Amino acid sequence: MSTHDVSTKHATIRYTAMRLGVFAACFGAIWILVSLRVLPSGLGGVSNVMWVMLLAIVVSAPLSFVLLRKQRDAMSVRIVEKVDETKARMEANRRQEDLA
Predict the structure, then answer these.
(1) Rounded to an integer, what distance in angstroms lies between the CA atom of residue 44 and that of residue 54?
(2) Residue 41: predicted pLDDT
(3) Residue 26, phi then psi, degrees to nearest 5
(4) Residues near 18 by beta carbon (within 8 Å), at least 6 away in sequence
(5) Residue 44: how many CB atoms within 10 A of its CB?
(6) What whole-number distance in Å separates Cα of residue 34 and Cα of residue 69?
(7) What's the total number of domains in the chain?
(8) 11 falls in which pLDDT band (50, 70, 90)?
(9) Which of 46, 61, 86, 99 could be 42's S-S partner, Cβ–Cβ 3.0 to 4.6 Å?
(10) Which residues, in sequence order, are CB contacts of 15 under 8 Å at separation 6+?
């Protein structure tokens, strides 16, 4: 296993965990701002938690896009590698069947 394999092996798990971390940080910051009445506590009949969750999703998405670019690229590399391995294995199996 090369060092490239080691660095990308758990790329999807690492990216997902970091994405959840960015969301959690946004959720916490927005919750504090809503509690301090810096931000409104909801619109119409929307509950406070749902409002904070919606705002956290809206804020965390672009932050994740910018802050987690390296992790997202590593995850993409790993996915492409897995797809290529699967294609090669299927092609080898097809050739094996053709010989039989």
Answers:
(1) 14
(2) 82
(3) -65, -45
(4) 64, 68, 71
(5) 5
(6) 29
(7) 1
(8) confident
(9) 46
(10) 68, 71, 72, 74, 75
Q: Which amino acid is at 48?
A: N
3-state SS of the chain: helix, strand, coil percent to 5? 80, 0, 20
Please give the Cα distance from 73 to 65 (Å, whole number): 11
What is the average pLDDT value for the chain, to the nearest integer? 87
- For the chain, first and last CA: distance in Å? 32
Q: How many helices (H) and strands (E) does the chain have?
A: 4, 0
Question: Distance between CA atoms of 88 and 92, rounded to whole angstroms?
Answer: 6
Determine the structural domain holding residue 75 and report its residue range: 3-99
3-state secondary structure of 44: coil
> Cβ of 42: how many Cβ atoms within 10 Å?
16
Does residue 54 contact residue 39 with C-beta atoms inside 8 Å?
Answer: no
Tokens encoding 49: 């938690």
As a whole number of angstroms, the distance between CA 80 and CA 94 comes to 21
Query: For residue 90, what are its two tokens?
Result: 């299927």
